[in-house]
Design goal:
- The complex is a heterodimer of chains A (about 375) and B (about 650).
- Chain A is mainly alpha-helical.
- Chain A starts with 5 loop residues before the first helix and ends with a helix.
- Helix content of chain A is about 70%, strand content about 5%.
- Chain B is of the alpha+beta class.
- Chain B has a domain of about 80 residues: Penicillin-binding protein 2a (Domain 2) (Alpha-Beta Complex).
- In chain B, the strands form seven sheets. In chain B, strands 2, 3, 4, 5, 10, 18 and 19 form a seven-stranded mixed beta sheet that branches. In chain B, strands 12-11-23-22-21 form a five-stranded antiparallel beta sheet, sandwiched between helices.
- Chains A and B meet through helix 5, helix 11, helix 12, helix 13 and helix 14 of A and helix 1 and helix 2 of B.
């Protein structure tokens, strides 16, 4: 179905953009884990950049397969896949491995896989399917919005219960972005935001765990608690500032090398990068991410059908929110909520999910 | 393509994409804005914080200055001391017999300590990680043995602690002083002086007053909190540390005192038969203090912590409970009625007022009737002139003077000689003493001023009090013809390599305007006290000692001191014995004041002490002159004729 003109039809900007980010991510991961090298008992951490390369290969192959398949194939399967994802999330409850007070992983042989990551793509497909199935000429009402919001609410509630606040927020915001490309009645919008505010308030009062509340409080007044919950944000800002205009140099950032960045290979890889490469490097990286987000919207705008357009927006929005929250967190703009930076944070599930998304995007882009 | 869904109309979506792009750019704009703030505008702030994270400063210890006597004998120095600790968490109890053997512990000690370790090992985690002190100030051989086996004995720590060492211990302990750990109050007050918690500072005496000179300045070494994974340590240090990377410590200044420790030892020997008291010897030509001793004393090695903190606490408990007040510096910090040692000054006041003269006569019948009271004399002296009144210490003569003279005149002469005025010697807190005036009595005594007060003041009793130091300076002024010196105890300050930084030349406080003839008469009378058969010091004189002086027996106000055993009360009701004088009689060089607290009569109890001290002073002087002469002779013969 692709025929001979693969080279002409391949979305080169998308392809190269993803490759650059992936390479930068591995290079940065090597810097982020170097403080653990040669330290007894930490070899596992020092070697994660190697595992990350394996995951990139696996994810890359999957992306190639996905880009080769016509995305409309997934339009049919969307709800079934979504259901499988929900089942996996429920399985976490039963089989979940408890890591740092929250159960997010399912152990499969020697892998631990994280259903909440894969759910990002499955959720996007399900929402896109709904939007494709239900075209509206009139602005959508609250009743019209109820089904997609329900589709979103189930997995969101499940991941928040793990508890994984960050992923829940990304689900919700990704779906909001997808719904934002439809026409919505003004009064419905007002109702939606009103009820969202209420939910947020109730969540704050009853739904959050103490450590989550503490993180948000420490974000609001970070100076009050430099040693406790505000510590991470404080040291991250120090690392970024220490980089200065040109950076400390690759693997020379002292905040990272001397272990002042907690979780520098999962939560704070941007701080590592910004300290090593400075303002110039950070600007280039953010530019690359920004380009990918805009390019996804561009793909959406040229998509031949509603499903393709909605999936492209969903992939772009998912990328955007993760980058915005992770980088914003490192910069001290948003609370520390544990959202990964796509292709920079270490993690097989995250890498495969991100690359799958780009594979779908490529599929849409090729078939525009 | 049959499995694929039919293409749907995308018309509904078209118009929103531009807004999404704008939103994305705006959001990234916010991130970049924050990036500019952190990496461009606030870069210095964050870079400084990052440096603070990875670097630190190690304070380098300095050495405290040495205190020496006038002849170079060390009175206070530093010595290394080693404490042995064990960390229960790491320590293997099976190794205990080895440790006990290396440390040469006896069986009971070994049992007690091993029980403590086992108890701590069984306890909670915090207690397990706390060091247990095994022994303070262990022997050098033990240190060497433990250091050799350091790797085989995990958890055993040998920690060096600098300890102040006082070679002469209790001899002159009040003067030299001792050290203590800095307390939180002083710490917060002196923080800008660079003190830190755990520092040791001078607590008393020279150690305290000259603290700022003795302590020196700590050094500083900047370090990177380096680990092997970070790369090359030297590169790191060069890169991340500001110059200068090290600041060498400056050792404290050495201090040379004016005192002769051998003379203090002589005083200690002379005072051996006495329980409590104080002696001061002053150079009458300079005001320099040649020796001072307060008795009973204490071992400043112990109270400075040389034998551990438990020993310090125990020592102070004992010292504070002692009714003889060993911690009190009785040369300056306590005032006593001068008794008859004041009579020369009363005589000078009376002569100045033309109320008495050397030819005045009084009939002594063993006392003096004044008003309704009878004022007792020390004996029945029959007809005495002024000379005999001083030699025999006749109170009746001075009561007669007291009836005629204004009390303020008696106080004025005392104040002129520095009695009842702080001397400013600057060692320990000074008592001012008191020369009572009519105004003072009006303020402090119930009822009207009575003439009897003046009678008592004339014989140095009543409300008059002086310190030993004040009296020594006053007698020095009598001896040198009326020059009252500033007492000095510090001769010079040197750097640790011996270069003199500052010297303290003698300072005159005042030159008294006294008729030389009258002073000559007083000299004559004071000589008579020792040489005349009827003189109060005659019986206890030493034939080889040439000196003049005045005895005194100061009555004690019969107030029971707190905490004194009633069986020992008789002691505290006994009079203080004084002897104040100077030597040699012609062209005096030193003034000496001896106070024996509750010693009884001055002639019998204080004079022997004074005599022996002066004898030893004469001997020391001769020895040193001889040594000097030898040295000169040697150098002459070396460089002399072939």
């Amino acid at each position: 179905m692709l025929g001979g003109g693969v080279r002409e039809r391949l979305d080169w900007p998308l392809f190269l953009g993803v490759v650059f980010v992936a390479i930068a991510g591995v290079v940065n991961l090597y810097s982020a884990t170097s403080p653990y090298m040669g330290i007894a008992g930490r070899e596992g951490i020092a070697d994660v950049y190697v595992s990350q390369v394996y995951w990139l290969v696996v994810g890359g192959l999957l992306a190639i397969v996905l880009s080769a398949i016509d995305y409309r194939f997934f339009e049919r399967l969307a709800y079934i896949l979504y259901a499988c994802g929900i089942v996996a999330l429920l399985l976490v409850w039963v089989l979940g491995a408890d890591i740092r007070g929250s159960s997010r992983w399912i152990q499969l042989g020697s892998f631990a896989f994280q259903p909440s990551e894969f759910m990002k793509i499955l959720l996007i497909l399900a929402i896109a399917r709904y939007l494709a199935d239900e075209p509206k000429a009139e602005p959508r009402t609250l009743v019209d919005l109820a089904p997609p919001l329900l589709i979103m609410a189930v997995p969101t509630a499940l991941v928040m219960a793990q508890p994984d606040l960050g992923t829940g927020v990304v689900y919700a915001l990704t779906v909001f972005a997808m719904l934002a490309i439809t026409k919505i009645r003004r009064s419905s919008l007002a109702w939606a935001f009103g009820s969202l505010g209420t939910v947020a308030f109730v969540m704050w009062k009853f739904g959050l765990r103490d450590y989550q509340r503490l993180r948000i409080q420490s974000f609001i007044d970070p100076e009050a608690d430099k040693t406790g919950a505000g510590w991470h944000a404080f040291q991250s800002k120090t690392a970024i500032g220490d980089g200065g205009f040109l950076g400390s140099g690759y693997r020379e950032g002292t905040q990272n090398q001397f272990g002042f960045l907690p979780d520098q290979f999962s939560d704070f890889p941007f701080a590592v990068f910004a300290e090593d490469w400075g303002f110039v490097g950070s600007l280039a990286l953010l530019g690359l991410y920004c380009f990918l987000c805009i390019w996804a919207i561009n793909v959406a705008s040229q998509a031949k059908d509603r499903f393709g357009a909605a999936v492209a927006v969903g992939v772009g929005a998912n990328l955007f929110w993760q980058v915005f929250f992770n980088v914003g967190m490192a910069l001290g703009l948003v609370p520390v909520v544990g959202i990964t930076l796509p292709l920079f944070s270490y993690g097989g599930s995250s890498v495969i999910t991100t690359l799958s998304g780009f594979g779908l995007l490529m599929s849409i882009s090729i078939r525009r | 393509m049959s499995f694929l869904v039919q293409r749907s109309d995308v018309g509904e979506f078209r118009r929103r994409y531009r807004w999404l792009v704008i939103a994305v750019i705006a959001a990234f704009g916010i991130l970049v804005g924050k990036l500019v703030q952190l990496q461009v505008l606030e870069v210095e702030l964050h870079r400084a914080q990052a440096r603070r994270n990875i670097t630190g400063e190690i304070r380098l210890a300095t050495t405290r200055g040495v205190i020496r006597d006038a002849y170079g004998k060390v009175l206070a120095a530093n010595r290394p001391s080693y404490n042995v600790y064990v960390v229960p968490e790491v320590f293997d109890p099976k190794l205990w017999p080895t440790v006990a053997q290396l440390m040469a512990l006896d069986d009971t000690e070994s049992k007690v300590l091993s029980d403590r370790i086992i108890e701590a090992q069984a306890a909670s985690s915090t207690k397990r990680s706390q060091q247990i002190l095994l022994k303070v100030d262990v022997d050098r051989n033990v240190v060497a043995a433990l250091k050799t086996h350091e790797d085989d004995l995990p958890g055993v720590q040998v920690v060096p602690v600098p300890v102040r060492y006082y070679p002469f211990g209790p001899i002159g302990a009040h003067l030299v002083g001792y050290m203590r750990e800095i307390d939180p109050d002083t710490l917060s007050r002196e923080e800008d002086q660079g003190y830190r918690a755990g520092d040791r500072i001078g607590a008393v005496g020279i150690e305290r007053r000259w603290e700022s000179y003795l302590r020196g300045e700590r050094g500083l070494k900047k370090v990177v909190h380096w680990q092997r994974a970070h790369g090359n340590r030297e590169d790191m240090e060069k890169r991340y540390l500001d110059e200068p990377r090290t600041v060498d410590p400056i050792p404290g200044r050495d201090i040379t005192l004016t005192v002769d420790v051998e003379l203090i030892q002589a005083i200690d020997r002379a005072m051996r038969g006495q329980l409590a008291g104080a002696v001061v010897v002053i150079d009458v030509r300079t005001g320099r203090i040649l020796a001072e001793l307060s008795k009973p004393s204490f071992d400043n090695n112990v109270v400075s912590g040389g034998e551990g903190t438990d020993a310090v606490r125990e020592a102070f408990q004992k010292l504070y409970a002692d009714p003889l007040k060993p911690t009190l510096d009785k040369t300056v910090s306590a005032a006593y009625p001068p008794g008859s040692t004041y009579k020369p000054f009363s005589a000078l006041a009376g002569m100045a007022e033309h109320l008495i003269s050397p030819s005045s006569h009084v009939d002594c019948h063993g006392g003096y009737e004044f008003g309704k009271r009878f004022f007792r004399c020390t004996g029945v002296h029959k007809t005495v002139d002024l000379y005999q009144a001083i030699v025999q210490s006749c109170n009746t003569f001075f009561y007669t003077l007291g009836e005629q003279i204004h009390i303020d005149r008696l106080a004025e002469i005392g104040l002129a000689f520095g009695l009842g005025v702080k001397t400013g010697v600057g060692v320990n807190p000074e008592s001012r003493g008191r020369m009572p005036t009519r105004a003072w009595y009006t303020r402090h005594q119930k009822g009207a001023f009575r003439g009897g007060f003046t009678l008592l003041a004339a014989i140095g009793q009543g409300a008059s009090t002086v310190t030993v130091m004040q009296l020594a300076l006053a007698y020095a002024a009598l001896a040198n013809g009326g020059t009252l010196y500033q007492p000095q105890v510090v001769r010079s300050i040197e750097t640790s390599d011996g270069t003199i930084v500052q010297e303290f030349p003698p300072r005159v406080r005042r030159i008294l305007d006294i008729d030389p003839a009258r002073l000559e008469f007083i000299h004559h009378a004071l000589h008579g006290v020792v040489t005349e058969k009827k003189g109060t010091a005659y019986a206890q004189r030493l034939p080889e000692v040439d000196m003049s002086g005045k005895t005194g027996t100061a009555q004690v106000s019969h107030v029971t001191p707190k905490g004194v055993d009633p069986d020992r009360l008789w002691y505290f009701n006994r009079d203080h014995a004084w002897f104040a004088g100077y030597a040699p009689s012609e062209s005096p060089e030193i003034a000496i004041v001896v106070l024996v607290e509750h010693g009884g009569g001055g002639g019998a109890n204080a004079v022997p002490v004074g005599m022996r001290v002066v004898r030893d002073w004469q001997r020391l002087k001769a020895e040193r002159l001889g040594a000097q002469a030898d040295a000169t002779q040697k150098s002459v013969s070396k460089g002399g004729t072939p």
